[in-house]
Specification:
The protein is α/β, with parallel strands linked by helices. The chain folds into 2 domains: 6-165, Orthogonal Bundle (Protocatechuate 4,5-dioxygenase, Chain A); 171-450, LigB-like (Protocatechuate 4,5-dioxygenase, Chain B, 3-Layer(aba) Sandwich), CATH 3.40.830.10. The chain contains 20 helices and 11 strands. It has helices at residues 18-23, 25-33, 37-45, 47-51, 58-66, 69-74, 79-88, 93-99, 105-113, 139-165, 182-189, 199-203, 206-214, 266-278, 293-303, 328-343, 373-385, 387-390, 395-402, 410-417; strands at residues 171-178, 219-224, 239-242, 246-249, 262-263, 284-286, 290-291, 312-318, 350-356, 429-439, 442-450. An 8-stranded mixed β-sheet has the order 6-3-8-2-9-1-11-10, with helices on both faces. It has a 3-stranded mixed β-sheet with strand order 5-4-7. The two termini are 17 Å apart.
Length: 453
């Protein structure tokens, strides 16, 4: 079933959800730019030239020129961001609010002095309240609608036909687990995969590449950690989901990796964000994200070096850099929420959930270079056979036994939580398992589990 959005039935109200955020990203970013005096000056001097600097839609630009706030919100604008535009025009918040109601400034002020608008008759569409009916529209918005009515209708008909042929729900088909060592990426980029040091490690993924050719998903939900690349110490989200249409490879200090741009699935990502947050998990929604080796190295290991990645990817970043980091128990439960979100999406997509990072390694201090192969392999055994019990392991066990950076393995529990057996389904099939020491400073672990509903 589709994600329930009961607020769509509230009259005269636009709730800024993940879908709206994705749609209005550049419009809202443009508004944020007006917080700088120099930008306000440039915008006032030549609106068209300044708007051309922002990759907004033609409709969003037209709505800005018309100063129609209702129209801007329809195209993804949020009132807190749009207020920056109003402030640039010298308007008070009350003047802006009044402009959206069809009232004059004086009429709106009088209504507020009298106690404000009553909720009576304005709770559900179809009642007899004073916020019912068509939204206040500028002449420019009305003209735009008249001009685009026929193309819009044709698009709706085409979408309806496509929906008929795409009946069904998304499903999780497999989970994939892999280390994401930066030196592996360097070996790929510089053609060193056949060297004696690297050849045994890459050979362990040959079977995985064949499996992936036979089981290519529509979408990969890829759990990884940002390595002080996109998120610095100014903002450290515990869980962050990328909802953009595409993601550029990041420059981690050596220049961006020569890998394809990562194409996202904004619709599914926004759906997952809203569903998971409504299941009481706090996610940070990220509409602009640069992805580092934590995401691109696993793609190389499973797909090689294609001209374009063969499926779409939803990046999901987890903080395992600065403590406190999320517990294994929390990550395992989050994986279950993600599976429920995916399976409620109304399109028959094949989705794989990947957990990356690990295995045992320590990159700092006198204990740098720590490897615990026996512990790593017990972790793999427990991940397959008893993930619920494994999820109870405290952070300190990871640190003591697997090194300070071994805590990345909690991300594998997100992918494992997304498997059907956790919710009472059949046990997964182990399609491939591989372990290798070392890859630079790290033990490399790898696992493919096929899901059975």
């Amino acid at each position: 079933m589709a994600l329930h959005k009961p607020y769509l039935d509230v009259p005269g109200t636009t709730i800024f959800d993940a879908d709206q955020s994705r749609k209005g990203y550049w419009l809202n970013q443009f508004c944020m730019s007006l917080m700088k005096a120099d930008n306000r000056t440039r915008f006032k001097a030549d609106e068209d030239a300044y708007l051309a600097e922002w990759p907004m839609s033609d409709e969003q630009r037209a709505a800005v020129r018309a100063r129609d706030l209702n129209w801007m919100m329809r195209t993804g604008g949020n009132i807190y961001f749009l207020s920056k535009l109003g402030a640039t025009d010298g308007l008070s918040f009350q003047q802006m609010a009044g402009s959206m109601t069809g009232k004059t400034e004086a009429e709106y002020r009088a209504m507020m002095i009298a106690g404000g608008r009553s909720p009576e008759g304005n709770r559900i569409v179809g009642e007899q309240g004073d916020a019912q009916g068509a939204a206040s529209q500028s002449a420019a918005w009305q003209a735009w609608q008249a001009q685009h009515r026929e193309p819009a209708l044709a698009a709706q008909v085409q979408a309806a036909h496509a929906a008929q042929g795409a009946a069904g729900q998304a499903r999780v088909t497999a989970s994939v687990y892999s280390s994401h060592v930066p030196a592996i990426g360097a070996a790929v980029d510089h053609g060193r995969t056949g060297e004696p040091y690297w050849a045994p490690m890459f050979k362990g993924f040959e079977r995985s590449k064949q499996w992936m050719r036979e089981n290519t998903p529509d979408v990969i939900f890829l759990v990884y950690n940002d390595h002080a690349t996109n998120f610095d110490l100014g903002i450290i989200p515990t869980f962050a989901i990328g909802t953009a249409a595409e993601f550029e490879p990041a420059d981690e200090g050596y220049g961006p990796r020569p890998v394809p741009r990562v194409m996202g699935h904004p619709q599914l990502a926004s759906h997952i964000a809203q569903s998971v947050i409504q299941q009481d998990f706090d996610l940070t929604i990220v509409n602009e994200l640069r992805v580092d080796h934590g995401l691109t190295v696993p793609l190389n290991l499973m797909f090689g070096s294609p001209a374009a990645w063969p499926c779409k990817v939803i990046p999901f970043a987890v903080n395992v850099v600065q403590y406190p980091v999320p517990s294994g128990r929390r990550c395992f439960a989050l994986g279950q929420a993600i599976r429920r979100a995916i399976e409620s999406y109304d399109e028959p997509l094949k989705v794989q959930v990947w957990g990356t990072g690990g295995m045992s390694h320590q990159l700092q201090g006198p204990r740098a270079g720590l490897i615990n192969a026996a512990w790593d392999n017990r972790f793999l055994d427990r991940l397959i056979a008893d993930p619920a019990e494994l999820a109870q392991m405290p952070h300190i066990d990871y640190v003591r036994e697997a090194g300070s950076e071994g805590i990345e393995l909690v991300m594998w529990l997100i992918a494992r939580g997304a498997m059907a057996d956790v919710a009472g389904g059949a046990k997964p099939t182990v399609a491939h398992r591989f372990f290798h020491v070392p890859a630079s400073n790290t033990a490399v672990g790898h696992l493919i589990l096929e899901n059975h509903a």
